[in-house]
Records
---
Amino acid sequence: MNETPVALITGGGSGIGAAVARQLLDAGYRVTVTGRGERRLRDFADSLGNPEALRTVVGSASVYEDVREAVDSTVKAYGRLDTVIANAGFATHDSVAEGDPAGWTEMVLTNVLGPALLVRASVDALKESRGRIVLIGSVAGFVPTPGNLYGATKWAVTGLAENTRRQVTEFGIGVTLVAPGRVETPFWDSHGSLPPGNLLTGDQIADSVVWAIRQPAGVDVNTVVVRPLGQPN
């Protein structure tokens, strides 16, 4: 069996997911990235020169058949799976009292159901590798903000990370929640503008993700909250 480690990243064609993919490829990993947009995935692979160690799989993080296929095809192609990163997610940037409910179902399914589906689909392969699950949460999953349904989905991810850890630790699987503050990524495109103040970069968050993944055997880093200096909440 090829001992080169393998990672699968949902929503990996841009932003934090793409930054993690680049850093893991540079570290010698074989990587699968998933996303709903074929063009975005193709452009991402093209930007890296289409390395042999990178696979792209079109699919939705909130559809179990798509997630299962991404996991199964990765294991079939590479012979193993060491790390999954549940990165796919988005915000409708509105509020429960004044927002448009039309976008809420997809947001909740992607942000909350999606990570759970990835855990379910990958757990058997991760048992074999004694691998790691990384969930990308948010500071919004620790700090209440008025009317913020997106924040509520990230509170759910915070809980999911710890609930998952308590079950899979006995299988030798680690679980890490990485909760960023404000980050300059395409996340803000639907908001119309970047928030004020200092922003982290996708690469800075990827540094924390890769650090957690590459801890020594037997070490389980569970929660990493990363804010830019100057973000008080």
---
Amino acid sequence: MTALRIQGLLFCAIAAGVAAAGVVVADALALALGGTTGLLVLAALILLLGVPHGALDIVFAQELYGVHGLRHWCGFTLAYLSAGLLVVLIWHTMPQLFLLGFLLLSALHFSGDPAPGTSLVARLLYGGAMIVLPALLHENEMARLFAFLVLPQAAMLLASFLHEISWPWLLATALAAAWQSRTHWLTGLEMAAAAALALLAPPLLAFTVFFCAMHGARHIVRTWHYAGAGAESTTRLGRAALLPMLGTLILGGAAAYGLRAAPLEAGLMQLVFVGLAALTVPHMALVEQVRWSGWARRDAPSPLNR
């Protein structure tokens, strides 16, 4: 069994367990996650288990653009940080545009998770599930979370819109998962697990589990394959991620210091999601090029399948 299959099955098991907990002990989960401690734990999980997959962008910079040497790395780092800074400036000046753009980009980026050969429609439904489906049963909570990033009225309108389209989205996702399972059973199972997680678990918990156990973990496994899938590849990825993660921690600490005057919950939400948006734009600019090539290196043109 390949590493990608194992990762997919583990995600399905974790998602099913968290979704079931969201039904059985919903009140206890809401109480645990509603406090400062719960939010800190989720933020720490996103930082330590989810963000590291973006730190591997250095591998793609080397392979796609031949970035080597101090001068090249300085130029790459400047371009990467400039794109992220632009995202932060958009949030400060046009928060509604920022939130809409972030949700759309996230859905498109998540659509790259399923295996090669997955239909475009199934990909888009899967990618949008984590954005749309939480609003079906947690519309008020979604509005509350959005209000940390935009004005309350805009947050309510967006949550209401997502609620309106959540039923047809759920039906379409269920049909797409059933259809996809006819040709690739694990992809269909992953779609169903992601949808159940988004629908039944509290929104922040659902996003954290999906971002860490599916999106981040899948990207790391694919990057490991891309780099050679061996002990040498593992060492290379570990070394590649070290400096970017250190830089992320330093920038995150500086941002947290700048938000120290804000209420803790609002500051954490802004730090996590504005920070993720700032990293997502340059990350996508690199990764999507590799995804559209079938995760094939220039010196190994065959696509990466499971």
---
Amino acid sequence: MNSSNLLARNARKYPQAEAIVSMGKRTTYSELNKLVNQLADALLEQGVFPSDKVVIFMPNVLEFVISYFAVQRIGAIVVPINAKFTLNEVEFVMHHADAKAIIVHELLFANVANLTIGDIKIKTGESINDWDSFEDLLNSGDSTDIECFLSEDNLSTILYTSGTTGNPKGVLFTYRNILTVAHMIAVEMEVKPESRLLLMMPLSHSAPLHLFLMAAFVVGSTSVLTPTFTPDLLIDTVVNEKTTHFFGAPVAYLLTASNPRIAQANFSSMQWWVYGGAPLSKQEVLYLADQFRTDRLVCVYGLTEAGPSGSILHAKEHPQKAGSIGKRAPLGTELRIVNEDGADVPQGEIGEIVLRGEGNMKGYYKNEQATKAACINGWLRTGDLARQDEDGYIWVIDRKKDMIISGGVNIYPKEIEEAILAFGGITEVAVIGVPHAEWGETVKAVFSSSKTVDIEALQSFLASHLANFKIPKLYEQVGALPRNASGKILKHALKEQGGVPQ
């Protein structure tokens, strides 16, 4: 089985069922399959062949889905990239991925109009210069069924990681990797043919693409796409489309929770509110449950390199264990917490999370050294430090690379960041280690706030919550923290500006 054949099967099985709802347009499985055949045929005519790499630079729109399946239908490898990428970032991926072609949406075309890399360049809307029209190609293609003979072990996709410490790495997936995690989420989140999955998070990311869009195609559900996220759009789409499942980053939930309209919104259709991609504190989880008036919040933890997969905290576990990432790996995945030697650590001790399952990546594209460093005897090293409590629940302490060592003592920034946010009035914070002549590193907090923060009051507050050695010695208030295209804070950029205390 491969992704293309899933669509073809659904077109036979559920021809009149809605496959995609996007920007007011409703497309059935039969119609979608026909469009995919047409574009696949046109791509072959353009010179895209099996194993070629094709970059998709689009927001969440119908054309993304058509392009995704058309590329795979002819045995080519699809490379979806973040809609917020700059020209330089797109050129890096095009070059690194050895991409033959790129398909761009008109909404993003201004970003790449001067692109010089790529033998075949396609954009939605009218053709211009050396850019062919997506619609013209679609209309020229033959709708006769094109059968895809690829197996689960064939290469499918390259996703580029967000790159918080430098250039992104290309994560290479087979169809087996993707279908494993798609089946996992379909089982864990009870996705049915009548389900309606709301996809607002970028489809260039592994969780929206592999977990939720592909789960919909595994089952034959409807995917409701929006090209962007706003709290108002989330509220309106859930209400109007009566969606049943939503996956979002914590910031999407927090922004929506503060929207005054949420109090009157009818969310009765929603069966599961799934969050992941960044940590939420117990206080935040309880706040969201109250604002969304739900007991159906689910936390998923995982890495792009694992499919993604990792662990799951179900709704019924939230009242007691909100803030943890659960106590088990989901369907098809194993999880351990190990020390530097790869041995399991005792309960209560801190170690690194490692994962094993058929969702784990094939490897990093053109980076054998990084692949060998990440994959040890079939286990994927996550770089996340965690411990298990007395009930077996896993609590992520911090990223291994973010740990601060001051005077030989390990300090975990996440704990400090949560304490600073509990002070109130601070909208975002990053705690980093900066060089210190005597201690090796010292703790610095960089934060943003709409008002000037009283540092003495903050330190006094922290003194009642943290040991003295964990309390930052340096503070810097900024307008906003630097983030990458995925919204992750760039701590390495802050460290480069660190400075040594006097």
